[in-house]
Amino acid sequence: MRISAKGDYATRAMQELAMNYNRGPLPIEAIAKRRHIPVRYLEQLLLILKRAGFLESKRGVKGGYYLAKPPGQITVGEIVRLMDGSPAPIFCVDPTSHDKCPVEPICGFQSVWDEVYQAIANIIDKTTLEDICHRAMLKIAPGAVSYRI
Fold first, then answer.
1. 17, 55 in Cβ contact below 8 A?
2. Using one digit for the tens of pLDDT, what is the confidence trace for 59-82?
3. Three-class SS of residue 8?
């Protein structure tokens, strides 16, 4: 699995919004600056995330973007799939693929690629933005047990 710049930037932006959950909208410029994302590109990504139902926005001086649901209800897998498609390493194990492999009957690799896909899917589908925030906070303040998401 390879995460594109689009997937990387989208997950970074979503983490920033999760870290600021329930603190009001964040302006695009603030997200871009904190996460080192080009503003023009971020604008496009945030629109995709909004159309998918992950974000809400508010116009005006105190406007910006905010999560449409709690960080514990949004998985990394949902964001990655939206931005990059299936995390399957090859088409023959991708559940969304309709292509049939011509060498499937004699292929010894398909089960290996399926195990790789299952392992990746298991990790990204059970990891929420809340989990990511916890991991980030442990890096920022090791030993800290209390913080607000």
1. yes
2. 988 899 999 999 999 999 999 999
3. helix
pLDDT band at 134 (very low <50, low <70, confident <90, very high): very high
Has residue 29 been placed in a domain? Answer: yes
Q: Closest by alpha carbon to 67, among 52, 82, 80?
A: 52
- In a 3-state reduction of DSSP, which class is residue 136? helix
For residue 71, the domain's CATH number is: 1.10.10.10
Residue 147 located in a structural domain: no
Are 59 and 45 within 8 A, CB to CB?
Answer: no
How far, in Å, CA of 8 to CA of 88, rounded? Answer: 17
pLDDT tens, 113-129?
999 999 999 999 999 99
State the Cα–Cα distance between residues 92 and 102, nearest whole angstrom. 10
Whether residue 149 is contained in a domain is answered as no
Strands, DSSP E only, in 4-145? 55-58, 64-67
d(CA 127, CA 117): 15
Contact residues for 100 (Cβ-Cβ < 8 A; gap 6+): none
The neighbour count for residue 128, using CB atoms within 10 Å, is 19
